[in-house]
Amino acid sequence: MTTHEAASTVFAVSGSLRSASLNSRLLDEVQKLAPGNIKFDVFDGLANLPHFNEDQEFPAPQTVQDLRSRVQNADGILIATPEYSASIPGALKNAIDWLSRAYDGAPLPLAGKPTAIIGASQGPLGSVRAQLTLRQILHKVDAAVVRQPEFLLPTAHVQLESGLAEDSASAQILRAILAELQVLIKA
Ligand SMILES: Cc1cc2nc3c(=O)[nH]c(=O)nc-3n(C[C@H](O)[C@H](O)[C@H](O)COP(=O)(O)O)c2cc1C
After folding, report:
1. Number of neighbouring beta carbons within 10 Å of residue 17
2. Which residue has a Cα nearest atom 29 of ligand 1?
3. Which residue, 119, 134, 148, 176, shows the most beta carbons closer than 10 Å to its own?
4. Which one of 30, 122, 125, 153 would you pick to mutate in the ligand 1 pocket, going by the greatest count of ligand atoms within 8 A of its CB?
């Protein structure tokens, strides 16, 4: 990937709220190995979103309006999800629920939006069940999801201890996912 190609903005969100989140650290690693023509807009407002409530949609709370406009302005999305009880964390689902609805005559926020999924966990499953669930949810909201390659990081507390080596298999897969995301963005 050459850096003279048009720059894209990727809205990046970790599904974890905790400060020592491995998924947030994984997003840090992705930013380090990404090509120069991807600019990341990292969202740290998941904890500030109220629970989705149809009674509060119009007008939506300011935190939701901020989320909507950042997603609308992004060319693509990258989600790093933990696995909670064999699914995705409620906070992440809540954000997607807010983004699943039309507002102000704008198109559905996630419809056709190029989106890539990754995930890390301390256990051996590496977030696989969370990613399957997330894929299904994103299918329903009509996002354009990167199919291949897939990236899961088991025993992430060990693997991320000193960061991902630039030439590691993990780094190569993550670069390939970003490249696929850029293909969808250009399409
Ligand atoms: C409420 C809760 C439920 C969890 N359920 C699962 C699970 O079903 N499968 C799994 O592999 N790990 C599970 N874990 C472990 C998390 O995947 C692990 O703590 C991971 O590091 C969380 O992501 P984070 O580091 O980004 O916060 C669970 C953790 C919590 C706090």
Report:
1. 14
2. 84
3. 119
4. 122
User: Environment class of residue 124 by beta-carbon count within 10 Å: exposed (0-12), middle (13-18) or buried (19+)?
Assistant: exposed
- Quote the ligand 1 centre to 88 CA distance (angstroms): 9
- Asked if 114 and 144 touch (Cβ cutoff 8 Å), the reply is yes
pLDDT at 140: 97
In the chain, DSSP assigns E strands to 8-14, 38-43, 76-80, 114-120, 144-145, 152-153
pLDDT tens sequence across 128-168: 999 999 999 999 999 999 999 999 999 999 999 999 999 99
For domain 8-186, the CATH architecture is 3-Layer(aba) Sandwich (3.40)
Question: What is residue 79's three-state secondary structure?
Answer: strand
The domain locations on the chain are: 8-186
- The atom number, within ligand 1, closest to the CA of 123 reads 11
Give the SS3 label for residue 176. helix
